Amino acid sequence: MSTVPPLDTVPPPDTEPPFTPVSPAAERDDIELGQLVRRLRPFALWIGLATVAATAGVYLSSRAQPRVYEAATSLMSVSGGRDSAAEFSVRAPPVTPGAVEEVLHSTELVEDIIRRLPGTSLPVPEIQALAADLRAEVKAQRFGLLRLRSRVDQQQRGVYEILARAGSPQTAKTLAGLGARSLLAWDSKRARQRYTRARQTLEAQLGATGRDPAGRAARSQVIQNIWELRLLESSAAGTLTLVSQPVTPTTPLAPRPSRDAALAGLLALLGSSGAALLLHRFQRRVRGAADLEALRLRVLGELPLPGQGPVASSRTGAFLGALGYLRLQLMPLLARAPQATVVVCAPTEAQGAGASAVVAALAAHLGASGLRVLVIDAQGGRSRQRHLWPLHIAAWHPLPGAGVDLAYGVATTLSQACLNPQVAQVARVSSHVDVLPADEPAQGQAVRGQAVRGQAVRGEPIQNQPAPSPLHQVNFPELLERWGSAYDVVLVDAPPLLSVPDALAAASGTAGLLLVADVTRARVPELEQALGLAVTTSIPVLGCVLTRPGRPAPNAGRARPSGYPSEQANIELSAITALKTDPGPKATAHDRHPSWSGRS
Question: How far does Cα 461 stand from its chain's mean position?
Fold first, then answer.
């Protein structure tokens, strides 16, 4: 009978905590074939070029080399029989393969081959060149013109094959035949030498035999043996027998351009692939979701950033589908979080533009689906949201908890909104999207009661100095919670995580961090370090968005009106239409962006 666990041991489904990485130094799985292909895919062009270059280079180099022909002749080794002509005579044993090879490369045999060359039909210059090459090989003890291949058994019975190489077919055939004849002559001389030495010994004994009757009988026996040895000496044969004459070769042994090129191409393919894997291991670039599996970092989407701007492209094409997948994976994580605020940041400064583009595109997509979205630009001097939204035509309205006070002016940037939250206002850039921009890079001077280039400052004229980030102010979490109460989703465009600690400061108490990694720049160690900082500060990481550069728009290079940022010109008409549909709270004289207050 099954037992139902107590209710207090089962966590409710709506209290599941967001994803938090366990450790940046997680173990890595074995490399599978698919993962190997994915790792090599970015290097496919270089691997292909290296393979083609090696194949073509070896092919052309091989064709330029002189041709080499090889001819072969065969000798058979037989075991000797017992010599019954004289009881003291014993046949010579068969020759071992090592001995035959030493003889073939000996000075005596090479000189014998050279002496036989004038009797052939080869031209005199070729004879002289071949003789010089043979003597050079003997001197260097490196043999390539004449080689021996043996196939014999334990009784030294079998076949010896003499291989001769030369620059022409006729020379190769002639050299193989001369090598076989010289080796047979040496074998026959070796067989006769035994009987010659025995005969010479008996002839010496014959002179020392006495003339007495006993000596005459011994002398007669010695003379008889001498005649028998002379007969054996004249008829002696070695253990080697010619089996086949050399044949003129028709095809060269070398070079073989096709074979050499194929082998070179294969080696180049394997070598370049190995070098690419080593480079990938040392660089550890992030090129896809598979590279983040070891970090246990959830990839929520892959966005091909369009060339015409993320806001205008968020409503059409493949970019719209990619944003849809991102929304479907992100919204359940926000529903389980105590506050639907996401801090979006990149690991490094080089990828900061991608994070701002993701914030703008995601805000436009969520707004188009009916959600109320607040975009907070916390990039400071790196601000890019000003170039992605039509702030110059937007209506401004107060944030929750703020109002309109003519004595205080308006606070229309993040830093001023944190200092003066009672007059903080945001720009309504579309029917459901509001933007609180960052300070402009160049501020100039400010005078009491007067808004200059998007800020209102009280007090005497001052010269703007670099100020601390408003994200580190004590009241920022409270303001973020207050401002977010009127919106479904709050997206904070934060500075790079590894450059400044602003993203970690802003993410405290929010749903968590959303990392943005550019597949053309991001590296795994950077994400490991970012995850380590998140684990250390107990900041949850919702996941990662991978961005890829898209194709530029066809009119990306056309001139635009002065003062129009690149993205504003694309979406101005749609933004005006959206504002007419839902203009938001009624605007006052101070609701317009201060930088446009003097325009008609």
Answer: 58
pTM above 0.85, yes or no: no
Residues 452, 337 share a domain: yes
Q: In the chain, what is the straight-line distance between the N-terminal and C-terminal CA atoms, in Å? A: 82
Q: What are phi and psi of 395, to 5 degrees?
A: -85, 145
Q: Which domain holds residue 57?
A: 31-65+255-283
CATH assignment of the domain containing 422: 3.40.50.300
Q: Summarize pLDDT for 41-80 with one digit per residue, the tens.
A: 878 999 999 999 999 999 999 999 999 999 999 999 887 6
472 and 433 share one domain = yes
Same domain, 212 and 359: no
Neighbouring residues of 401: CB distance < 8 A, sequence distance ≥ 6: 421, 422, 482, 483
DSSP for residue 80: P
Whether residue 559 is contained in a domain is answered as no
Taking a C-beta distance cutoff of 8 angstroms, is the pair 96, 261 a contact? no
- Tell whether the model's pLDDT for residue 257 goes beyond 60: yes
Least confident range from 106-115, 213-222, 437-446, 509-518: namely 437-446
Task: Count the domains in the chain.
Answer: 3
- Taking alpha carbons only, the member of 187, 197, 273 closest to residue 238 is 187
Query: Exposure of 448 by Cβ count < 10 A (0-12 exposed, 13-18 middle, 19+ buried)?
Result: exposed
Per-residue model confidence as pLDDT tens digits over 351-362: 767 888 899 999
Q: Considering only CA atoms, which of 455, 456, 457, 453 is closest in space to residue 596? A: 453
Contact 457, 416 (CB under 8 A): yes
